[in-house]
Structures are given as structure tokens and as C-alpha cells.
Design brief:
This protein is mostly beta strands and 160 residues long. It has helices at 26-32, 153-157; strands spanning 9-12, 19-23, 37-43, 47-51, 56-60, 72-76, 82-87, 93-94, 100-101, 106-109, 126-128. The strands form 3 sheets. Strands 5-6-7-10-3-2-11 form a 7-stranded mixed beta sheet. The radius of gyration is 17 Å and the shape is globular. The relative contact order is 0.24.
């Protein structure tokens, strides 16, 4: 995968993530300027920076759920892309998806940064921090029209 400017590149050998979720917490929404955030966590040993490691900067803020105080958001200082999160769990546990997460350091990667198709095993298994959601999650919705590419003005005015 890579950041927006491709200065920072990485690879991962993660086939089955510890967590794959949509997060609605206010921290993630503000960090990404988005209504929700898709993230995949896996053991740090399965993540390897390939280039641009010297360009990384990070921001550490105490997340309410972070009992160890190790959570950090890492980004490319050249283009500003968030490239991964990192933290060390307080203790081994089962995740909300029922998968085992050891006490070893974890890395969280936004799947959109991959430069290859997203593995099917990385499909989100849940929404988290729904209480903080700004989207109405109470009823299923078909949402706005969908376009395969950026719509032309005609498609945007007449999506159906």
C-alpha cells in the first residue's frame, strides 16, 4: 500500500485481521474528516514499511478505550495521508468479531490505502462506537445514487 503521494509505501502479510470494522467515534471522524472510518487491525509483525519511513510523523492522543496509553495515528509528513494507527492491547482478548487479539502490538491500516484489491477476509464484521455516529443507523437505507466513476454533470442531475 501507499500514502496519497506514494512517498511512504508498505506491505502487509495479514490474511485474517484481528479487527475489521467501521468506526463511528468522534476521534476517528475528526482525524479523517469523514462520517465514519474503515480500519483493519492486525499484529505489527505482519506490517513492513518499504519506503519513506523517515517521512512519517505521528500524533498521540489518549483514546477512551486505550488502557495502555500507546495509541498513535501515523501520517506522511509530505502529503498528510493517515497511513496507519498503532497500539498495544492491555491484555489478550477476543475482539468484537470474535477473533483473538493477543497482547502484542497492533497496526491498523485503512484498507483504501492498499494498491491491490482488498482481500475478502478484510471485509468489515461490525460497526463500532455507534452511539457517536452522525449517520442515522436506525434503519437500513439505499443511500444516494451510485456512480461507477466521477459522474458527468448530466449523470449527477439525472442519476436514474
Amino acid at each position: 500500500g501507499s500514502c496519497y503521494c506514494s512517498a511512504f509505501t508498505f506491505e502487509t502479510r495479514c490474511s485474517i485481521p484481528s479487527v475489521s470494522a467501521y468506526c463511528h467515534c468522534s476521534d476517528c471522524r475528526k482525524a479523517h474528516a469523514a462520517m465514519l472510518y474503515r480500519i483493519v487491525y492486525f499484529p505489527r509483525r505482519l506490517f513492513r514499511p518499504l519506503s519513506g519511513h523517515h517521512l512519517l510523523s505521528h500524533y498521540t492522543a489518549r483514546a477512551a478505550w486505550d488502557a495502555t496509553g500507546t495509541f498513535a495515528r501515523h501520517f506522511c509528513s509530505k502529503c498528510g495521508s493517515r497511513v496507519f494507527n498503532s497500539f498495544t492491547p492491555a491484555a489478550p482478548s477476543r475482539t468484537m468479531s470474535g477473533r483473538y487479539m493477543g497482547a502484542e502490538p497492533q497496526v491498523g491500516v485503512p484498507p483504501a490505502l492498499l494498491d491491490c484489491p482488498i482481500p475478502p477476509s478484510w471485509a468489515p464484521t461490525c460497526h463500532i462506537h455507534c452511539r457517536e455516529a452522525v449517520l442515522d443507523l436506525s434503519t437500513p437505507t439505499h443511500g444516494p445514487p451510485r456512480h461507477d466513476t466521477y459522474p458527468s454533470p448530466e449523470e449527477a442531475e439525472n442519476p436514474y
